[in-house]
Amino acid sequence: FFLAPVGVAAQDTFDTLQKNVWYLPTADGKAFLYVTSLGKGPPVIVLHGGPGNDFNYLVDAVRAEGPNHQFILYDQRGSLLSPVSDADRKTLTATTMVEDLDLLRRTLGQEKVVLLGHSWGTFLAMLYYQAHPEHVSALVLMGCFPPRTEPGADFDREVKIFQDRQRALRQRPVVSLALKAAGVDAPLERLGPKDRWTHLRIEAFAGANLYHVERWAEFQGEGIYYSEKTDSAIGDSLPKTFDIAPMLAKFPVPVTVIQGDTDYLDPSAHAWDYLKPNKNVKTLIVFEASHYSWVDNPVQFKADLHEALRRSF
């Protein structure tokens, strides 16, 4: 539904993204952030996953709202289109990402911004909100991190839970069926390079991120689009404990969570249940969907994103 058909529509989107490109020098002069935009209307800054992924996989998620909003898309520092040296990559932190985002906000001339994040981008959005609550007007969080570490636990424990859920998703029978249907269910050592990569796309990437694994060809990212070194560096800098509730009480803003019912980060957004008394927080559960809910259930996702953006302005 969101994937543009081959031909004029796909070409128009690609051309628009290319025509709107500009580069933002970071405050420390160590990188140039690749920035572009899609759509017209009130601006929404889009924060991609990873860390170390790139923004392109989110174009299909936001494209349908292009007539109503201008989506500012950028590669975060250390990602494919905003590269850094190996030495500088080792020093990347979550604080660096927050500072870059604030520089982008100021450069856009926006006193307050709506932040739309996916996966790691949701955590970056919440970290930015904690650091600069006066500059956030709303949060839209898709495939969202929990809003806090559980009492008595730390972030390392949360990551282990995420990884355990990913492994369980990859071991589903539907993954084996998709491998067989694609003709790549043989042992890896017996597959050629192309089939080996197809096996990886189905078993590891789609298996962990999609409810409908048979749609594996629509999963975008990984390979050159993802930097494990960037992910590792920023991951090592994350706070050990976290809770967004105190900031929401002090600086209330609309928060809309769009979450798949089998999303490995937080199935059905149950971790947000403790914030249900807060009328500014709304969770929208996408059924038969995992971490890439716009691929799994595009019709419901489209309606939920429209509702989330309506609440944000």
Q: Could you give the order of strands across the largest sheet?
A: 1-2-4-3-5-6-7-8
Q: Sketch the topology as an H/E string, one letter per element.
A: HEEEHEHHEHEHHHHHEEHH
Largest sheet: 8 strands, mixed
Indicate the percent of residues in helices: 25-40%
- Rg, rounded, reads 19 Å
Question: What's this entry about, in short?
Answer:
With 313 residues, this protein is an alpha/beta fold. The protein is built from 12 helices and 8 strands.
Fold and architecture overview:
Helices cover 39% and strands 15% of the residues. With 313 residues, it is of the alpha/beta class. Strand 3 (43-47), helix 2 and strand 4 form a beta-alpha-beta unit. Helix 6 (155-170) packs across helix 8 (193-209) and helix 7 packs antiparallel against helix 8. The two termini are 26 Å apart.
Tag the structure with descriptive keywords.
313 residues, alpha/beta, 12 helices, disordered N terminus
Question: Helices and strands in order, then pairings?
Answer:
Layout: H1 8-19, E1 22-25, E2 32-38, E3 43-47, H2 59-62, E4 70-74, H3 86-89, H4 94-107, E5 113-118, H5 120-131, E6 136-142, H6 155-170, H7 173-181, H8 193-209, H9 228-235, H10 245-250, E7 255-260, E8 281-286, H11 293-296, H12 298-312
